[in-house]
Design the sequence.
C-alpha cells in the first residue's frame, strides 16, 4: 500500500468517453464529489463526475486520515455523526480494506483555557449522544507510551475512527462506478453552459455535456472556477505539511494532537504526522480581496497561519493565474492537473523537534514520504454546501476547511438529497452560500 499522495504520474483509473448528457455533472473528484455521485446513483440519477487530474489527487489523498467527530462545529456535528455510521456501511460495501478502524481521537491541553474549551465541547457532545469525555492529567500520561510532557488534561472521543485516504477515496470511486457513475479523469471542466439564466450544460476540454444540474466540488480550485462565472466566494487555500513515517513502535493506536504536533497511526505500522497549528498562506489577489472577511478568524487564529509574500505559479490564487477564459481555451485547470506543493521545511523541522521533546526515549522516526496539500478554507472555518441562487441548477460544495475527509459520506448524502429536492435531514442554514453577502456576522467555527 503506497503512502504517497497522487500526482500527475499516477496512472489513470477512469477514462470513459464523455457522454452526450447526464442528469447531474459533478466537477471535482475528491471525497465530496465521489460520495455525492454515489448517493445520487443510488437514487437512479445519471451522474458524470469530471476530474481534471486524478481521483483524490489533491487534498483528498493528502489529509491526515482522521474520521473525527470531536471538536466539530455544532452544525457540522450531526452530519459527521451520520458520516461515521455511513463509513462503516460503505467500508463493507466497497469490498476493499480501506484501513477503517475505531481507535479514537484525543486532544491534549497545556492550559486551563484549553480545558474549558474541551469541557464546552463535552457539553455539546452530550446533547447529541456522542461519547466525548474529559481526561485527567494522569490518564493522559498513561495513554501514550513514553510520553515525557505533562499535560493539564485532555479530550477524547473513543468512537472516532481513522482510514487511509489514498486507499479510501479511489475505493469509493470504484464502488460508485460499479453502481453506474461515469467517472472521467484527465478531463477538466472549462465553463458552465448557461442558457436562459440557468445551467444547461458544461464545456469540458473534450467537448460539451448536456445537463440541468451541476455541482462544483473542486476544492482549492472552486473559487477560481466560480469567479469566471461572476460568482464570488471568499475562499482561500492554505498549505499544510504532512509526513508519513516508516513502520515504528506503536506509541498509540489512534490519533492525538496538541499545539505542536498531530499524529495518527496508519494501517502499515507507520504514523502520519503534521506540525500542530501550522499552515502557510500564499498572498495572492483573492487574499487581498477577502481580507476583511477573514479578520474574525485571524483574530481567533484557528489555522496558526504563516504568510508568504507572493503566490507561486500554478496555484489557484497565484498572481500569474488567469481569471477569465472561453470554452475553447486551455484553462488553469488543465495547466495544473494535480496541485502538488512542496512541504514547508520549517514544518518538517518542527515535527522532528516536537517528537524528540515528547518522546526522548524513542529514536527519531524515519520518513517514508513528505508532502504538502492545499486546504480550501472559508472565513468561518465551515464549508459552503448550498444551492447557488444566482445560477439555477448550480450547487456549491467547497471550503471544507480540512474537515472534508471524515465528513465526506454525510455531506455526500446531504448533497444528493439537496440536488434532487428531498428533505435534507439536517439544518443546513449555517452552510448557505448567501451568508457572506446577506449581512450576517461571520462566526468562526471552533479552533479545536
Sequence:
Amino acid at each position: 500500500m503506497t503512502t504517497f499522495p497522487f500526482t500527475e504520474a499516477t496512472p489513470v483509473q477512469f477514462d470513459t468517453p464523455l457522454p452526450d448528457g447526464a442528469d447531474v455533472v459533478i466537477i471535482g473528484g475528491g471525497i465530496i464529489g465521489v460520495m455525492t455521485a454515489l448517493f445520487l446513483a443510488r437514487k437512479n440519477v445519471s451522474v458524470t463526475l469530471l476530474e481534471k487530474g486524478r481521483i483524490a489527487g489533491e487534498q483528498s489523498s493528502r489529509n491526515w486520515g482522521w474520521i473525527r467527530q470531536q471538536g466539530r462545529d455544532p452544525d457540522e456535528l450531526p452530519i459527521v455523526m451520520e458520516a461515521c455510521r455511513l463509513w462503516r456501511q460503505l467500508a463493507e460495501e466497497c469490498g476493499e480494506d480501506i484501513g477503517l478502524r475505531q481507535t479514537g481521537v484525543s486532544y491534549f491541553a497545556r492550559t486551563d483555557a484549553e480545558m474549558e474549551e474541551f469541557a464546552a465541547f463535552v457539553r455539546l457532545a452530550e446533547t447529541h449522544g456522542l461519547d466525548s469525555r474529559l481526561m485527567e492529567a494522569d490518564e493522559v500520561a498513561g495513554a501514550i507510551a513514553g510520553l515525557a510532557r505533562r499535560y493539564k488534561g485532555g479530550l477524547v472521543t473513543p468512537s472516532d475512527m481513522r482510514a487511509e485516504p489514498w486507499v479510501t477515496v479511489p475505493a469509493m470511486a470504484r464502488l460508485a462506478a460499479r453502481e453506474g457513475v461515469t467517472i472521467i479523469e484527465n478531463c477538466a471542466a472549462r465553463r458552465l453552459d448557461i442558457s436562459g439564466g440557468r445551467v444547461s450544460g458544461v464545456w469540458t476540454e473534450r467537448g460539451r455535456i448536456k445537463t440541468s444540474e451541476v455541482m462544483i466540488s473542486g476544492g482549492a480550485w472552486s473559487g477560481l472556477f466560480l469567479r469566471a462565472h461572476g460568482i464570488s466566494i471568499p475562499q482561500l487555500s492554505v498549505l499544510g505539511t504532512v509526513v508519513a513515517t516508516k513502520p515504528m513502535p506503536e506509541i498509540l493506536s489512534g490519533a492525538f494532537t496538541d499545539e505542536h504536533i498531530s499524529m495518527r497511526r496508519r494501517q502499515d505500522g507507520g504514523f502520519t504526522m503534521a506540525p500542530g497549528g501550522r499552515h502557510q498562506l500564499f498572498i495572492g489577489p483573492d487574499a487581498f480581496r477577502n481580507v476583511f472577511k477573514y479578520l474574525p478568524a485571524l483574530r481567533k487564529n484557528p489555522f496558526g497561519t504563516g504568510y508568504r509574500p507572493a503566490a507561486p505559479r500554478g496555484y489557484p490564487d497565484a498572481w500569474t493565474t488567469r481569471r477569465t477564459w472561453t470554452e475553447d481555451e486551455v484553462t488553469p485547470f488543465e495547466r495544473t492537473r494535480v496541485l502538488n506543493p512542496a512541504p514547508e521545511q520549517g514544518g518538517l523541522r518542527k515535527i522532528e523537534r516536537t517528537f524528540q521533546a515528547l518522546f526522548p526515549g524513542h529514536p527519531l522516526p524515519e520518513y517514508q514520504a513528505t508532502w504538502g496539500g492545499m486546504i480550501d478554507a472559508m472565513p468561518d472555518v465551515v464549508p459552503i454546501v448550498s444551492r447557488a441562487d444566482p445560477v439555477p441548477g448550480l450547487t456549491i460544495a467547497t471550503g471544507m476547511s480540512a474537515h472534508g475527509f471524515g465528513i465526506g459520506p454525510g455531506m455526500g448524502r446531504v448533497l444528493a438529497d439537496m440536488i434532487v429536492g428531498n428533505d435534507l435531514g439536517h439544518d443546513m442554514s449555517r452552510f448557505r452560500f448567501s451568508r457572506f453577502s446577506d449581512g450576517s456576522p461571520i462566526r468562526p467555527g471552533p479552533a479545536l
Summary: The chain has twelve helices and 22 strands. The radius of gyration is 21 Å.
